Backbone:
């Protein structure tokens, strides 16, 4: 039973933590063979519900220039995801069903890639990170851009995620206050 609990716990932990997708070392990822960037939109790139802004567009365009292929993988409905992704000129998967793997794998297929060359960025453990791990991707947990914009069900999930994130950060020697507000 301990092995099962340990495996479940590990499946909820990210490969890495980065305070922000904007501070991630994409040059290192490229040198390590990563060529595909999948990402959640809300509270990973912009506050929940916000349109693509100058900062997110600069990041996306810079990643394209480095040679990355990009796709948003979101549980949101098509109008929200399409609007953001058309402005950013990137592929997208809407109603992805995270933490199921189909959305991640569909994004990779659309870009003609492989799981081993893919990194995924998200701000939630129980959807983003669990799904990316189940799909066999490098999963990067980022601090929410603005948690005050979360919908009520996400606020509830964040309460449940808190002990897992604290344990992960403590284990990695990362100051807990770098994640929590």
Residues:
């Amino acid at each position: 039973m301990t092995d099962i609990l340990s495996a479940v716990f590990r499946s909820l932990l990210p490969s890495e933590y980065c305070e922000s997708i904007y501070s991630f070392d994409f040059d290192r990822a490229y040198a390590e063979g990563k060529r595909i960037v999948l990402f959640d939109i809300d509270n990973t790139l912009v506050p929940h519900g916000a349109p693509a802004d100058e900062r997110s567009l600069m990041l996306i365009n810079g990643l394209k220039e480095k040679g990355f292929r990009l796709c948003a993988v979101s549980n949101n409905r098509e109008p929200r995801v399409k609007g953001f992704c058309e402005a950013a000129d990137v592929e997208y998967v809407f109603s992805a069903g995270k933490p199921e793997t189909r959305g991640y794998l569909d994004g990779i297929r659309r870009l003609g890639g492989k799981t081993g060359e893919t990194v995924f960025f998200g701000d939630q453990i129980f959807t983003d990170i669990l799904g990316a791990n189940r799909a066999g991707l490098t999963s990067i947990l980022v601090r929410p851009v603005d948690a005050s914009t979360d919908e009520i069900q996400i606020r509830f999930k964040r309460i449940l995620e808190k002990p897992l994130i604290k344990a992960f950060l403590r284990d990695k020697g990362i100051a807990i206050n770098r994640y929590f507000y």
The longest strand covers residues 69-73.
